[in-house]
């Protein structure tokens, strides 16, 4: 190929190829800076993008599980609050039962204490029936069913049992308003109505406390998992902004130089005109 040709300008072709490569690199760098990602889509790095999408799916699932666990925590907190009130009220009922067990009470005194006992048992029933959260009451469950809760993004279940508090607590003491001295005395024994109701209540307080502690631990564990996943995802796809900033400046200078080089190469054939001047 002739070195001095007006049809083929090798210098211009080389300069143009170099300028195009610089423009492509500049576009990629600008994309990283504008999005903050080294891998914004599959065109940047298909394998890394596929891994990132899988991690994002895992994170979304774990976040969803934690949201559900937050609702369960609210349910258990309401349940525990109700049981605390039931326990306190049973202690008050026990005090009244001691008075009702006294055979020296007058008829008027017994009537007054029985009225107090009725009020206390009514409160116990109300506490149980009002222990609802998001439409669910795990104290007022006649069948004491098993509750299954999704505990993580993999769909693993954590199970715990509801409690038939009306049957095992309220029904045991609901007749307190009519207790005679003998009936009240019997209710106060370790195997009596009040003793059984208190034991059942305290047992369930312990159980629901354990359930709540597990939920708290699982929520915190899921948060730790999310932090680790987010850190790993960032290392995989995030752009190093300091590095990209320095690269942007270098590429801009290269682009300017490439433009100048192309201009020089394009003007080279003009020098051939001097060969034809007379």
UniProtKB/TrEMBL annotation:
Q: Where is the Flagellin C-terminal domain?
A: 193-276
Q: Where in the cell is it found?
A: Secreted; Bacterial flagellum
GO cellular component term, pick one: extracellular region
Question: Flagellin N-terminal domain location, by residue?
Answer: 6-143
Keywords assigned by UniProt, alphabetized: Bacterial flagellum, Cell projection, Cilium, Flagellum, Secreted
A Pfam match is: Flagellin_N
Enumerate the GO terms in the molecular function aspect.
structural molecule activity
Q: Which domain of life is it from?
A: Bacteria
Q: Which family does it belong to?
A: Belongs to the bacterial flagellin family.
Q: What does this protein do?
A: Flagellin is the subunit protein which polymerizes to form the filaments of bacterial flagella.
User: Which PANTHER family does the annotation name?
Assistant: FLAGELLIN
Protein name from the UniProt record: Flagellin
Which organism is this protein's natural source? Roseicella frigidaeris
